[in-house]
Amino acid sequence: MRVLVYGSGQLAQMMYLAAAPLGVIVSAVDVSNETVVHPVSKEPTGVSLQNAIEDANAITVEFEHVPEHLLLDADKSGKLFPNVASILAGADRVREKALLSKHEIPNCPYLIITDVTDLDNVIASLGERVIFKASRDGYDGYGQWRMQSADQLEKLKSEFAKLDLVKVPLIAERMMQFDREISLVGARDSEGNVSCFSLAENLHFEGQLHVSVAPITDLSDSLQSQANEIFEKLATAMDYVGVLAVELFQCGEELLVNEIAPRVHNSGHWTQQGCDTSQFEQHIRAVLGLPLGAVDVRGVSAMVNIIGCTAFSRDLIGIAGAHLHWYGKEVRTKRKMGHINVVADSHSHLGNKLAQLLAFLPVEHFPELEAEANRLKNYTK
Prior knowledge:
28% of the residues lie in helices and 27% in strands. It has helices at residues 10-19, 49-55, 68-75, 84-91, 93-102, 122-126, 153-160, 221-237, 271-274, 279-288, 347-357, 369-377; strands at 2-6, 25-30, 35-37, 58-61, 110-113, 130-134, 144-147, 170-174, 180-188, 194-196, 200-205, 208-214, 242-251, 254-261, 300-307, 322-326, 336-344. The strands form 3 sheets. Strands 9, 10, 11, 12, 13, 14, 15, 16 and 17 form a 9-stranded antiparallel β-sheet that branches. A 4-stranded mixed β-sheet has the order 3-2-1-4, sandwiched between helices. Strands 5-8-6-7 form a 4-stranded antiparallel β-sheet.
C-alpha cells in the first residue's frame, strides 16, 4: 500500500518511519516545486506527481498551507484525506472561526478585521487586551500582534494600514485569562470511529511550543470527556478522516478552542514512545481504512522541542526513557531541529528525568525546561 504526503518536512518523515513496519510505502511532495521526493533523504524519486497520485492508495498532507490548486488536483482522485474543506479550515482562521461558530463550539470572542476602520469597534467589543492574528500563513507566533492597553491601538492602526486586509483579514480575539494551554490529538476513520489520545499540557515561549506533557497534571474524567466531545463534534461536522489536533484554553473547568490543525501535530509527538500507537501510525491507519490502534498511555511523557540549535550532547539518550528524534535540517533561528521524548512512570519521576536532561542541553535554547522539571518533581497527586 502507498501513501502520498503533500509536504516534505519532518512530519512526512515521521509518517514514513511509522508506516514502514506496516508495509506501507510513503512518498512526499515538495510543494514548492511539485516534485515527488523520499521523505527522509528528500531526494527526488523520479516519479511524476501525476503517476504518484495514480499509484497511491491514499493522499494526505503534513501541513495545511498546501497550495490550493494542488489540493484540488489531489481531490479529483477521490483519495485525499482529510478532505479539502477540512484542510482549508485549518489554513484560514476566518473559515476556522465560521466552523466553530456554526457548530456552537466554545472559542474566544472575536471580530474579523477587513479594514482599518473595523478597529474602531475592537475595544468596545473585546476589551483593551486583544490579540490580532493573520487569517492565513501565521504559525509559531508569526503573524500575530498583541494589544495590552488602549493606548497601543493607534500604533497598530498604522501598522495594519500597510497590510492588504481584504486579501488576508485579521482575526481580533479577546486575550483570555486562561489557566493553561492544552491540546487534544485524535483520529477519525471513514466509518466514523473516533479515538482520542490523552490531553497534553503545552508550554510556549515567544509563540512557539517548547514542551508538552501528557497526560496533563490534574486530569479529570470530566475534562477529558469534554475535550473528547469537542473533538468528535468537530470531526463529525467536517466528515474528517485522519488525525486532527485541537488546541484548547482551559479556563477553570471550561475548555475554549484556540485553533485546529488538520494533520499530525507537534503536541502529539509524545505518542511515539508514550502510547501503544503513535499519532503518525494512527494517521496512516485512518487514511488507508485500517483499524485504528489502541491509544493507552505508557506512563507519563514529555516532548521537548529542540529549536534553533545543534549544540547539545547526544549522550542524553543514556537517560532511561529518553529518545532523540532528529530531523536533519540546517540550523536556523526558531527552526524546529528535532525533539526529545522522555517517558517515566509518574509526573514526579518525569520531572527528575527532565532535570537530568538539562545537563546535556544549552539552557538558553530551552527556556521553559527547568521550571517545568521543578514543577513536575514536586507534583505528588
